[in-house]
Amino acid sequence: MIITENLFAIEEKIKELAELIISSDQARNYYLASEKYSNDEKAILLEHKLQSAYDAFSQIQEQEYGAHCPDYKEKKHAFYQAKRAYDLYGSIADVRLAKADIQSVLDEIAIKVANKVSKKIVVKTGNPFSKHQSKANCQNHCLHQRKER
């Protein structure tokens, strides 16, 4: 790649955009939720319980008999209970929601930038509910893509 003045100008605009994103409400909410999570002893305890339940369950799965081991159902049940308790705990759920919000902002920015360059550029957001993502998965077999051409 040849480095030109345009590249430096783009880099400056990226820094400005990053500062705007960092100062956004979504980023602020994410930082606050992350801070709350890292100071929450019960959340950390739930994370450790989930990890130990996962380790115990994965050890059984890796064994030769797998699902036929005597403790398989108990370990699986313990893992799912720990996962549910972890996922539904307040500060953990808040972090995940805040993370999804900031990710939506970043996805929307990427999509807008790509569409300014060319409407044919596909940005895979990783979000199955994104209106842009569903078009990317069609691989030219969908009616809405045929109409756009």
Main attributes?
149 residues; 7 helices; disordered C terminus; YheA-like fold; mainly alpha
In words, what does this structure look like?
- By secondary structure, this protein is mainly α.
- It has one domain: YheA-like fold (Up-down Bundle).
- 74% of the residues lie in helices and 0% in strands.
- It is built from 7 helices and no strands.
- It has helices at 5-22, 25-38, 41-62, 72-88, 90-117, 131-136, 143-148.
- Helix 2 runs antiparallel to helix 5 (90-117).
- It is elongated, with a radius of gyration of 22 Å.
- It starts with a helix and ends with a helix.
What Rg is obtained from the alpha carbons, in whole angstroms? 22 Å
**How many distinct helices?**
7
Written as H for each helix and E for each strand, in order along the chain, the element string is HHHHHHH
Indicate how many domains the architecture comprises. 1
| Oligomeric composition of the shown chains | single chain
What level of helicity do the residues show? over 70%
The averaged pLDDT comes out at: 84
* The top level CATH class name: Mainly Alpha
**Residues in β-strands, percent:** under 5%
CATH homologous superfamily label: YheA/YmcA-like
Characterize the main sheet: none
Number of strands: 0
Low-confidence stretches: 143-149
Distance between the termini: 31 Å
CATH topology (level 3) name = YheA-like fold
Q: In terms of structural class, how would the helical and strand content be classed?
A: mainly alpha
Going by CATH, the architecture would be Up-down Bundle
Overall, the morphology is: elongated
